[in-house]
Amino acid sequence: MAVLGWRDNHFGRRICGLHVDYYIISRRYVCRACERRSKDAAEAAVEAARTAAAAAGMRVEDMDVENSDSEQYSYMGYDLRSRQLLPFGYGDEFPAFLTHRGGVDKEIVDLQRPLFDRGVRPESLSAVLLELHAKRYTEAYLRREHLLQRARRFNAKLDADMFSSFGDKCRCALCMR
How far is 51 from 135, CA to CA, in rounded Å? Predict the structure, then answer.
């Protein structure tokens, strides 16, 4: 196994938590044994095609064996197939259920079944999550204002940036403490 590097098309998978969102970031890995097996299988398929074409009296052009899609041999560190191979059940401790682009924290997944069985609709759960996120944002905003007020009392030359708005996707308001 070897490291291929970091993803360059996004910075992480966004996970919706009960009170805050967080990101899962991982390197991309490659299994050299699977890569070699995949390359050998592609080369064998090309050789079989050449033999069959030669037997039929046809001419075969060279094919690009490097771009064969026969088997995947690179993966992210949070991939389900690699998490299942971790010893001592460490893969079960992964905090989120991953979707195509993001994910949901397992605390929310654990709440969904009992709530939906009692008649709570997914839209209502989404509204509750939005309310919990807004509450956490407001608490962080007030905590920061109190800290700034205390700091200004002791140091009048304090210059602080504005707190980001709740919907600001460029700055994480909860991380600015």
Answer: 69
